[in-house]
Write a structure and sequence with these properties.
The chain is α+β, with helices and mostly antiparallel strands. 25% of the residues lie in helices and 29% in strands. The chain has helices at residues 15-20, 62-66, 89-102, 110-123, 200-204, 207-214, 261-272, 284-293, 331-345, and strands at 4-5, 33-40, 43-51, 69-71, 74-78, 84-87, 135-144, 157-166, 178-182, 220-224, 231-234, 237-243, 247-251, 276-280, 296-303, 307-316, 321-323, 355-357. The strands form 2 sheets. Strands 1, 2, 3, 4, 5, 6, 7, 8 and 18 form a 9-stranded mixed β-sheet that branches. Strands 9-10-11-12-15-16 form a 6-stranded mixed barrel, surrounded by 4 helices. The radius of gyration is 21 Å and the shape is globular. The relative contact order is 0.14.
Length: 361
């Protein structure tokens, strides 16, 4: 694929401050450039890297009216040798195509997604921070651009990749536990819908539930299925728990649950660490009883942004609170987190082939 480049004549970055800042927020900064590609006439074309800035879109664009928009989230890391490595981006590219197909949008070959991302990372490599728990966050997205108000898929699309030098998702990093709200008032998705796709509408509709969770001192909502019987996922993470026999249990992936790249990676990694891992449909009532009895000793969420978010408490709308273990970051979660992030940052051998080195152009 030929990628045209229009680069800024003067770089605006201050790489030293990015690499050495004591605190770096998540998702606030942008690198100098972005990748763009357009779909028209049945083909993806005009691949280019240009200065980061506004993207022109008509007011009647299908994405603005009918939500035909999907995105992904991945990370690249600076290793001790100074080189940049992506982590399992090919899995994100595959999931992007699943999302695109779900919303009747044209797929983008995985090799093209990989090539575009690696080229942009090479151009912007000085933007990759080096401090602990930091990364160069990768945000690819696709949206329908046809100026048409008819209720049908767009005929034209834009694919964009932007980069964000980021620190830990939660302030303070991997040091604190969170509380989740369990409610039967809201549902993230239903069977037959778009729950397994990473489409923008899934997240926009979740703001209302997240707003409610904050009134209970919770970070997010633990969503149940539409029958309020089974655990599905947290607002931005797959849920999991660990039993006292050290089995990691993750809800079975269905068409209403997003398959987290972190979850599938942890399932592979945990087995190598000596854990049993299983996926199953988890009844919320059984989960509650096992937390109360102590059969469940640790719980949390898996996701790209935070990697692992340990959960200390679950609160209900009647203000009942149940506590997991001793309400600290458990030894098993810490062990998995340390092993996982060590591979990402190059501090441990990548025995799984998850890392891709960004080639220098």
């Amino acid at each position: 694929m030929e990628i045209k480049m229009t680069l800024k004549p003067e770089r605006e970055r201050n790489s030293d401050s990015i690499k050495n800042a004591e605190s770096l927020s998540f998702g606030k900064l942008r690198s100098d450039h972005m990748f763009l590609m357009n779909y028209e006439g049945g083909v993806w074309k005009d691949a280019r890297i240009v200065p980061y800035g506004p993207v022109e879109v008509m007011p009647g664009a299908v994405a603005l009216h009918y939500g035909q928009s999907v995105f992904e989230g991945a990370k690249a890391f600076r290793h001790e040798d100074g080189e940049i490595y992506t982590f399992r981006f090919e899995e994100n590219a595959k999931r992007m195509n699943h999302s695109l197909s779900t919303l009747c949008m044209p797929e983008i070959p995985v090799d093209i997604q990989m090539e575009a991302t690696l080229k942009l990372l090479d151009v912007e490599r000085d933007w990759c921070p080096a401090q602990p728990e930091s990364s160069l966050y990768i945000r690819p997205f696709v949206f329908g651009t046809e100026d048409a108000l008819g209720m049908e898929p767009s005929a034209t699309y834009t694919y964009c990749i932007m980069l964000s030098p980021s620190g830990a998702y939660y302030p303070g990093g991997f040091k604190n536990t969170v509380r989740l709200l369990i409610t039967d008032r809201f549902h993230r998705a239903v069977s037959g819908g778009t729950g397994s796709a990473k489409c923008c509408g899934n997240y926009g509709q979740a703001f209302r539930a997240a707003k409610l969770s904050k009134t209970y001192g919770a970070k997010q909502v633990l969503y149940l299925d539409s029958s309020n019987t089974y655990i599905e996922e947290v607002g931005a993470m797959n849920h999991f728990h660990i039993t006292k026999d050290k089995t990691i249990v993750i809800p079975e992936f269905t068409d209403s649950i997003l398959k987290s790249i972190t979850s599938i990676s942890v399932m592979e990694l945990a087995k190598s660490l000596g854990y049993e891992v299983r996926q199953e449909r988890i009844r919320i009532n059984d989960f509650i009883e096992q937390v109360k009895s102590g059969d469940i000793i640790e719980a949390g969420g898996f996701g790209t942004a935070a990697v692992i978010t340990p959960v200390c408490e679950y609160i209900f709308e009647n203000n009942e609170v149940i506590t997991v273990g001793d309400c600290t970051i458990g030894e098993n979660i810490r062990k998995i987190y340390d092993a996982y992030t060590a591979i990402q940052t190059g501090d441990a051998e990548d025995k799984f082939g998850w890392l891709t080195k960004v080639p220098r152009g």
